[in-house]
Here is the input.
Amino acid sequence: MSKLKDASIPTIPLQARISRWFGRNMIRIYALFGFTYLFIPVAYTFAFSFNDSGKSNLIWKGFTLDNWQNPCGAPEICNALGNSIKIGFLATVFSTILGTMIAFAIGRYAFKGRSTSNLLIFLPMATPEIVLGASLLSLFLVFHINPGFWPTVIAHVVFCMSFVVVTVKARIASLDPRLEQAAMDLYANEFQTFRRVTLPLVAPGIAAAALLAFSLSFDDFIITNFNSGTLTTFPKFVYVSAARGIPAQANVIGSAMFFLALFIVIAGQFIGRKARVAK
Amino acid sequence: MADVSTATRGDLRLTRITKTYADFSAVNDLSLTIPEGSFFALLGPSGCGKTTTLRMIAGLEEPTVGSIHLGTTDITTKRPYQRPINTVFQNYALFPHLTIFENIAFGLRRRGIKDVDADVNKVLELVELPHLAQRKPTSLSGGQQQRIALARAIVNRPALLLLDEPLGALDLKLRRQMQIELKWIQREVGLTFVHVTHDQEEAMTMADTIAVMNEGEIEQMGTPADLYDNPKTAFVANFLGQSNLIKGRIEGNDGDNLVVDLFGQKISMPKNRSHAVDSSIYAGIRPEKFRISLLGTPTRGNILTGGRIEEVSYIGVSTQYQVIMPWGQELMVFEQNDDGVPPFDKGDEVMISWEPNFTFALRGDEDAEAGTEVAPDDLDEDE
Amino acid sequence: MSSTLSKIKLPYLLLLPGFLFLFTFFILPIVNLAQTSTQTPIAGGDTGQYEQSLRFANYLNAFTENKEQFGRSFLYAISATILALAIAYPLAYAIAFKAGKYKNLLLVLVIAPFFTSFLLRTVAWKQILGEEGFVVPPLRTLGIIGDSTTLTSTSFAVIMGLTYNFLPFMTLPLYASLERIDPRTMEASGDLYANGLTTFRKVTLPLSMPGVVAGTLLTFIPAAGDYVNAAILGNPNTKMIGNVIESRYFKIVDYPTAAALSFTLMAAILILVTLYIRKAGTEELV
Here is the structure.
């Protein structure tokens, strides 16, 4: 096999290279614009958290760190935030537990009524929030329960549960059944297999579901509005103050939540990757 | 409609193709001509660059430098849909949402052909699956999917048909059967086939010409017999079948033959089967060319004495022996069980002999282990 | 054997708590809502006092009085869904096929804006698109819009707000569907003489339909019932049915009408969704 040592190496013409590059990367360029668009209001919120605004954060008045140093400065805001966090935490715990159980039932066992169960889980996701909120409020009123903290928690669990089920079910579906078979082959009974093999493997899905549930609960406005009565939550606070001007502290809290959540998710990814490498 | 001139035919010529990725080069200054109408195999271990080369011919990757010509047409910068070349993918890549009929008709329709029935049915007959026309790919077995993938490519009568390890996922019996069928189909339709594989038996069964690739370059190219009988490098000698490589020195001439010293024992071999550049060589003999005989038995040809049998493996058709020589090397011998004579025993003191014309000589500075560690079940090497 | 017995019962045991909860706090409320929707105001009683009847006239009245808002809600929701699909599809495509090792990071970035309260983001849009934002003044200087045109308090802003809010709901199912496509089938399409656009039409798009259906449903359904975007970014003429229902609960206390409206909304959505699913022909919903 002779090498054409004396022949010069043919190169690809520049025009072809350029058009090929564009063809390949046009969609990446679009994605860049897309992500920028997604983050514009986030960036805006973050920027205006530094605004020396006083009561009304509508125009830029000057840069200050005061808001960040004093995030609870606006009246009611930390109360609202605290409520949102408490409600979110409780709603997450309940919906994750109940939802994971349902996900295991539907995802692993073939039983009569499985497709009906699937449908039932889908219904809350298909119902507009306003109907969910209004119907719950009506029910509470019938039983003379006043809207407030616990009705809100209950309402949140209702709509978060379906999302938990979908998320965990997806994770369960990707489990290799041979892993559990291997565990039982190695003398682990059902409970031990579940605890040492199944649960750790499904755990990332459950964690993702919990994070999703918390985000949905924290950010919820419509359902909360119907069922919380005089209790403020963070979204309610923002909505109410939207008319006269949202205090910059709200921007601070919103931005802080953003960075915190981003950090948790990215850290989770890193830990997951490290764990996989270590194993 | 795609710009495809099916009149573009001829030999496929790769000129000084190099393909580099960020940190390594998959194909290195490779030049190759594939004659029209032949069944050509690119053979090599996983990661040698054969699949990358194939994909560059198909247009699914572009070379970093170099050019590709089909006949007189330069197709280097042409997109895959502009080349009269079709590929049979390793995992078949059938369109799951289309019926078998529509899968096969796909290429014809894209080229603007309205009346596809005749062509599609003809090629379904060729692969003996006309009854599956209305089914969907997911309901077919692996072997059936493979034949449909082939049909989908052939129906377009491309100038070149590329096959990317198409038989990898089939079980042994089916694979053997498909090897014969593919060869028959290639002769029937007269297309140029380029077949990429890591299975040397497969390449030798099917191909007219084989190019053995290693680390982005072609080690040797020729007919299966050329490559097997007269390998030029240790890689080819070890990758195709098995070889015994014995270190030695050329001591002198004897007419058309060379006199070679192997650890004190003298043998002779034809001059034109030596690829050495100086007197230091590896003498190569295939295991089936060796004959074992007990000490004192009259033998002819080259003889090496002082061997002792270490291992005996009875394989039905043949018996394989490991014979340890006085200089510490274990030689492999395959003896056909064709004469009812019982095999030798472990511990027997024996001589090894062979016809001098079967010897080949490699350069003394070759790596004698090159090509020996090859995993039979290669993973998909595409990046 | 007790273990086989528990094996048969296990799925039901797992389902029990969650379904009990859903029954009590989802099914029952909806049934109650149905009941409320057919109530009549007690003659001579205070506002908020009703007696049970089978007053289906409530539905008729509710619908006829608010057909404008119904129509508008569906118009806005469909527009937002189409826009969201147009924006999200290439984005999901880029993440699924062009992202390499950054796939997971990009997915996180799609959800990340979610972490800032959606109200804060919607109000941010109001200010960005408002008189003092950085969109209107440059457009005015360039002469693209007149001095008297505003972007906020318009139906344009409401649709934009809806589109933006539900972008992650559209992107993720699209991504999940696209990710499942074997890239080799797209290569095979090119190998078989289909150019980029044709490959998209004939291979990629059909195979991504489950994601398209899921994404459009997850966007349209909440968008139809939304009222926050209309409240913040709109004006009294952009009221959606959600606004009407909200005001019937809290401002004008008229529970039967509100309930009737809610049911009508749900029914309308269900009808549209069923027609849509039948046309798109896919069963993979959850």
In short: Chain A has a mean pLDDT of 85. Chain A is about 75% helix and 0% strand. The two ends of chain A are 47 Å apart (CA to CA). Residues 116 and 150 of chain A are 29 Å apart (CA to CA).
